[in-house]
Design brief:
Structural class of chain A: alpha+beta
Structural class of chain B: mainly alpha
Distance between the termini of chain A: 32 Å
Order of helices and strands of chain B: HHHHHHHHH
Oligomer: heterodimer
Number of strands of chain A: 15
Strand content of chain B: under 5%
Chain lengths: ~525, ~180
């Protein structure tokens, strides 16, 4: 920031009117400080500052403890004799020796403290997960939720969060839609923050998004943020525990599980969280949040915390339950149908809304398709890990009555959800998170987002649940890391998410678009 | 064990107030390295004097009090890199941060959620120079070249924009128009 621009000395009669010189200076410097803070002190920088403070405090404590020990040693009878005994080592030499011993011990302990810090194992795991999430690479999380009033977790993702090289460092796109298909899209590219207005036009935001995260959808609310940002809140606001060898709904393998209970006072954050971390990559592959003691219901990974029994009756070994189907192994999810407006219908049979049922043959079509979409809409290509699925269009000709009997049959829209191909979640090879996404489907450019007054509405401030006029809290929100093809060029810019390619840079018009 | 627990609790306080403290220090100090040093010093002093802290009172103003004294001490040693920090200015600044602290929100950032709206309400030419100065980090001369005006005119415009922002941020009533992200 320009040194000159910080100058607060030149007074202008008009600005000065009504304020004393001190008030004037304070106002000027106050706004300067806020602007500087907003543009320079992001969460990683602040986290590093806090760690430095706590390391320094720990170091100070150990140095003091060692000095105290050295003092005790000096008053010990044997040491005292050494100090007093004539003809032995001079007192100054003994003192110097003790001091050097203390210094060595202090340095040793200091280094140990520096490396171990004061973190609990769960906090340390979380910190390494945040670092991993911010490491180089492109990532997509799908967000499903059981919103207020719902009885199960949405089968369709309600949102996606795409990041490149970490959400707080570089590019990000968050797309949220209502079950009716109205969108809210916001993101950050190299030029800064942007959002798509309700009229579908891209707008550059001046500065960061105010209160990112909470959205109102009718009388319900939804929290959508990059996972690494959410993780940062956990270490201070939740009591965390770590468990190794945990199972996860719909995924094979063993995971590091961090479970957290919210400390008092941090409403509206979730009451409980569970985070499954890949022990090899340190990446968070699933994060679940729940409010109000919600046990999850159908499709939610949470079971009864004590018995591991899911609400829908399946018994699972894990503390959170593993939610697996009768065969106890995750199976492929069939592709979903379309409703004729370009919106996919929920996938999977009603007792398996997340498509996590028994391992099948990778042919989800007949069971899962519901609109009889024509062949060209879902080409018979083989997915990366899975077997050919219903993309061949061999699903039932008649859907659920909600969609047209003939699909639109248009190119990119017609492909499998997010272009992942028909293999569905987890292929026969059982690769965790093996869904592969292209960029078609309801969250890709092949699907033209619908913007309008009915769309998700970002909230000005965090919801105050229970107060008049406030939305109701969600019950469960699940973030799933999904395998992802490289994002297309320009993906993190607003032009990729609207019909209009021109990004208007006039923030004043944003208000008009509201 | 007790010591470790105390440190954990203190860390919670540090995390909760880190954003506010950084914004406060940036209001008083221009040089980034000095800001970082003062941040650490403030927190360390707070830790050492934690027994003096009146638990009936909020932690933020106490922390700002420590920071303000350290800033004045620093300025006595070396004025370079410091902004105006007379006691009256520090006191006035404290009132502004106190006003922000009383806003609803879990975090300092959440309490500042009207910043986007306030920026959006600036005249376009004001918003432009603020963005060039703060978001893009340009020097005054570069900003002047970018907008094709003289440095003095730009300097005044930046300053007027900051005053308008300060008024908007500290107003008791939220600015009309809601948040920009709603767009």
């Amino acid at each position: 920031v320009s040194d000159e621009a910080d100058n607060s000395g030149s007074l202008d009669g008009r600005e000065h009117a009504g304020r004393s010189l001190h008030e004037f200076t304070a106002d000027d410097q106050f706004a300067h400080g806020i602007l500087e803070f907003y543009h320079k002190d992001d969460a990683p920088a602040q986290g590093a500052r806090v760690r430095r403070v706590m390391d320094a405090i720990a170091h100070e404590h150990h140095v003091a403890a060692q000095a105290k020990d050295a003092g005790r040693a000096a008053s010990h009878p044997r040491t005292s004799r050494a100090l007093r005994a004539p003809g032995r080592r001079p007192a100054w030499r003994v003192m110097a020796s003790l001091a050097s011993m203390a210094a060595v011990l202090a340095i040793t302990f200091g280094l140990a403290v520096f490396s171990a810090s004061t973190e609990s194992p769960a906090e340390a795991t979380l910190r390494s997960a945040v670092a991993a999430m911010r490491s180089e690479g492109e990532r997509r999380f799908e967000v499903r939720a059981m919103l207020a009033g719902a009885s199960e977790v949405s089968s369709e993702p309600l949102a996606t969060v795409d990041t490149r090289d970490g959400a707080n460092i570089s590019n990000m796109v968050m797309r949220v839609r209502t079950p009716e298909g109205n969108f809210f899209v916001t993101g950050r590219d190299d030029e800064g923050e942007w959002a798509i207005t309700q009229t579908g036009e891209p707008r550059r935001l001046q500065g960061p998004r105010p209160n990112p995260g909470w959205l109102q959808m009718g009388d319900a609310s939804l929290l959508v943020e990059p996972v690494d940002t959410l993780l940062e809140r956990l270490s201070t606001r939740y009591t965390l525990e770590r468990r190794e060898g945990a199972v996860m709904v719909g995924r094979e393998g063993e995971w590091t599980l961090i479970e957290g209970r919210r400390k008092a006072g941090d409403v509206p954050l979730a009451d409980r969280v569970a985070i499954w971390i890949n022990p090899a990559t340190k990446l968070v592959e699933r994060m679940e949040m729940r409010w109000g003691g919600e046990r999850g219901g159908k499709g939610a990974a949470f079971g009864d915390a004590k018995t591991g029994t899911l609400e829908d009756g399946a018994t699972a070994p894990g503390e959170f339950g593993d939610g697996m189907g009768p065969e106890g192994r995750p199976g492929p999810r069939g592709p979903r149908g379309w409703d004729g407006e370009g919106h996919r219908r929920p996938l999977g049979p009603p007792d398996d809304p997340l498509g996590l049922g028994p391992r099948g043959e990778g042919r989800g079509g007949p069971e899962h398709r519901d609109d009889g979409r024509p062949d060209e809409a879902a080409p018979p290509e083989r997915g990366p890990e899975g077997e050919p699925g219903a993309g061949r269009g061999d699903g039932p000709r008649r859907g659920d009555g909600l969609g047209p009997r003939r699909g639109e049959g248009r190119g990119p829209e017609g492909r499998g959800p997010e272009g992942r191909g028909p293999e569905g979640r987890g292929g026969p090879e059982g690769r965790p998170g093996g869904r592969r996404h292209g960029f078609e489907g309801p969250f890709g450019p092949g699907m033209r987002p619908r913007f309008g007054p009915g769309g998700p509405r970002p909230m000005d401030r965090p919801p105050r649940f229970g107060e008049p006029g406030q939305p109701r809290p969600p019950k469960v929100i699940v973030f799933d890391l999904v395998a992802c093809d490289p994002f297309p060029e320009g993906w993190f810019s607003p032009g990729a998410h609207t019909a209009s390619a021109d990004v208007k840079d006039d923030g004043a018009k944003v208000e008009e678009g509201r | 064990m007790e010591e470790q627990r105390s440190r954990r609790l203190f860390e919670i306080l540090v995390r909760e107030h880190a954003d506010m403290l950084m914004a406060y220090l940036r209001s008083l100090v221009r040089a980034g390295d000095i800001v970082d040093d003062l941040f650490q010093q403030t927190m360390l002093v707070a830790w050492r004097r934690l027994d003096d802290f009146d638990q009936e009172r909020p932690f933020g103003p106490w922390l700002r009090g420590i920071a303000g004294r350290l800033v004045m001490e620093q300025r006595r040693k070396k004025a370079e890199g410091m902004l105006t920090c007379e006691p009256e200015v520090i006191e006035a600044l404290d009132r502004r941060f106190e006003a922000i602290g009383k806003r609803p929100g879990d975090t300092f950032r959440e309490r500042l959620d009207r910043l986007g709206t306030c920026l959006g309400r600036l005249p376009a030419s004001f918003r432009e120079v603020i963005e060039l100065t703060y978001a893009r980090g340009l020097m005054l001369k570069q900003v002047a070249e970018a907008v094709g005006e003289g440095e003095e005119a730009v300097k005044k415009r930046v300053q007027r924009a900051r005053l308008m922002l300060a008024d908007c941020l500290t107003a008791s009533e939220p600015p009309a128009g809601g948040s920009e992200a709603r767009a």
